[in-house]
Amino acid sequence: MSLDNKKAIVTGASRGLGKAIALRLAKAGADVACVSRSVESVAATVAEIAALGRKAKALAVDVTDGVAVDAAVDQVAKEFGSIDILVNNAGVTKDGLLMRMSEADWDAVLNTNLKGAFHWTKPVSRVMAKQRSGKIINISSIIGLIGNAGQANYAASKAGLIGFSKSVAREFASRGITCNVVCPGFIDTDMTKVLSEEIKKKLLERIPLQRLGQPEDVAGVVEFLCSPAASYITGQVLTVDGGMVI
Fold it and tell me: Which residue in the list 80, 106, 154, 172 is annotated as catalytic?
């Protein structure tokens, strides 16, 4: 499971799943470029990685801006010398019933969650193809598998990530690049902390393991998929949901 001296990019690394993933990769030995909308928001993640003795870099990039992403990838490739791992984790929600959903809310979610992954994967895949090696992990959601009322935009973006990932896996397999998907269920993050106790109780009734997941549960699966132990796994979708969608 060692990632000694591997070079990683993690988007949405300021908190929650992204922060847990960035720290887990660093603990396994990787240097990590941490992406967020501002340097300040990701500063804590970078400081914790540096405290582990690994190189960390803060990148303020809007994932919906393809030009800015291209520049960031060039910068990381030059400073780190390679890019071995890409974790597309950045995501947003703008929930609402479909009949009331604005086009702006639809576009905002699709542009960040799906197009953002396209923006990062395209230039990073060029670097990885030259190396003839690389690991791409896209963070989807069980909502992309089962849908959810009031989240048509989010479900579409996360389902789209699955199809996107399978295509990437087929396209780049001959270059030694793998691409897999992790679909978290309900994880104990800022997004779920706002749920009422009643809603949480109903959720737990649908989860066989009868608890919310922790960010580390997801980070551990990502670490595995980035490691040599997963070298023969590509194009797969792993759910980390306590059995919710069995």
Answer: 154
